Amino acid sequence: MNSSSVTDTWEAVCSLCLERLKATGYKIECLTQDEAEVVMLWRLEADGYNGGFIQFFCNWGEKNCATAMNALRRIGATSTLNVVQKQRNMVERFGEHPEMTEYWDIPKLMTDDEAKIIGEQLDPEFWKVAEEIPNLAVPIYEHIISRRA
What we know:
The protein is mainly alpha-helical.
């Protein structure tokens, strides 16, 4: 499969899973494990390329981050997983912070150094390595297209 057809297939898989999510009233627990993993990978990519890891984590939270990381592990996206794990480790300490009432409190509680490491070092690393996701995900999840056809 050439790069263009891999990208097209991955986009089709993501679109089907997002349509299914919408049909459930955005109840991710109503999706199959594969569908939920695709949605989380899509969210990781979309938010990761848009506002970075902090946007992804603050929008979707710990449980969804864990699902995305499990999906990265499953497809063998070790380069992406390593970057996301570093980012996740940096925000872990905020889970018990007394001033944190929602995930979007994290950017306010981070030190300038933490924000720079995540935003200026690790996010650009993510942008480079996340290109592996479609090539690794398509063989695992393309069955979703044939199942829906």
